[in-house]
Amino acid sequence: MKIFFSALLLFSTSLFAQIDQSRQLLVVIAKNWNADRGQLYLFERNESDEWTTIAGPWDVMLGDSGLAWGTGLYDNPPDERQKIEGDHRSPAGVFELGDFFGYDSIPPAGIKFPYHYATKTLHCVDDTGSVFYNSLVHESQVIRDSAGHLPWKSSEVMRLDSVDYKYGIVVKNNPHAIPGLGSCIFLHLNSYSHSPTVGCTAMDEDKMLQLMHWLDPQQYPLLVQLPYDSYVSHFADWNLPSLPVEQSEKNSE
Fold first, then answer.
1. How far apart are CA 44 and CA 54, in angstroms?
2. Is residue 76 part of a domain?
3. How far apart are CA 250 and CA 253, in angstroms?
């Protein structure tokens, strides 16, 4: 996801980063491609270069239509469902993480990522025809036309009337902002009803705060989000961590 803040460049991870370079992995496992919920694990690479489980499983909500291959660090299987704008599917694949955001004017103490105050003037642009597509942009950063219109036809205002965006993390799906391949994908809080999302991954507030404090941009954290069978298929070639036994048994039922 493109972000129009120069300070972010100090913390950005190379788009060529691979799992072998990461020392922190967020792994979300869904039952299948149509599942609207999954489980999140946090893994850390130890001094012996082995993955150890830090936390999880945490229950998370996914898109109400399930998963589809997003645009991340690895090429997608061409014969499988690809994520497109408005499909209500969470992106599957391997993704870098972007900035944190939230309703508090100052970030939670101790976090290491850049943080943005989510006001009514902060937008995530989902207009495929806009040059700001798939970007977080403040109204003050853009020039309005002669009629006073902002340079996009549609966007998400990042200060919602619900709790969902009280805390959140940008997921770098479609980082080159190719029109139509999906926009505005986040890790964020569950709604009060714990209902599925329209394409993001949602969790409880205590888990989100634990995650935000744990993540360190210097450790090249990545999100791996897959149905169980695809995780097993890519386990060796992507050098993924072994899932806890109970997760394997649960998804093989």
1. 7
2. yes
3. 6
Domain that holds residue 198: 21-248
Residues in the chain: 253
Count CB-CB contacts under 10 A for residue 158. 24
Give the model confidence (pLDDT) of 49-98 as tens digits.
899 999 999 999 999 999 999 999 988 888 899 999 999 999 999 999 99
Tally of structural domains, the chain: 1
Question: Where are any strands of DSSP class E within the chain?
Answer: 2-3, 24-30, 37-45, 51-61, 67-69, 90-102, 115-117, 122-125, 135-138, 155-157, 167-171, 186-189, 201-203, 222-227
Contacts 24+ apart (CB under 8 A), 10-13: 11/99, 11/113, 11/114, 11/217, 13/96, 13/97, 13/217, 13/220
3-state secondary structure of 141: helix
DSSP state letter for 244: P
| b/e 171-189 (16+ beta carbons within 10 angstroms → b) | bbbbbebeeebbbbbbbbb
Query: Is 14 within a domain?
Result: no
In a domain, 61, yes or no: yes
Quick check: 68 and 226 in contact, CB under 8 A? no
Q: Is residue 3 part of a domain?
A: no
Within 8 A by CB and 6+ apart from 214, the residues are 24, 42, 54, 55
| Residue 223 pLDDT level (bands cut at 50, 70, 90) | very high
